[in-house]
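Bench notes, afternoon.
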Amino acid sequence: MKKESIVAAIEPAVNELNLFLEDVIITLAGKHSMLRILIDGETGLSMDQVTEASFKISEIIDLMPEIGQTPFTLEVSTPGAEYPLTLARHWFKNLNRLVSVTLLDGEKFTSRITSVENDEITFADAKANVTSVKISDIKSAYVEIEFK
């Protein structure tokens, strides 16, 4: 199983559903493999959307000759909170959410996304301090889980 060939085969079908292919993760465990496909949309996905994508992806992968007789488990899901915010659309989707950010210079902070414009993210913390940062200056960022 090669990631590149799987991406090339399934990405058009995912895009037809107006979704994004975030990642393909292949985990080998002896004679069995785990194929994890992460999809996302402009907004949160419903279970029906994930199910529809899962059926389409499964049909395509079952027909791929390079998969052959290799037993595998297919998991189609959305990225969880552990998945980093890397693209502008990730930031738009999480507008007003609390995020933990590490900048390239090592500075770390946790703050709420208040706006996204071009390559710049504006944050406001609990004390109403406002900070603007270019996406290119961010080393890593993750959504913080909040319980209200």
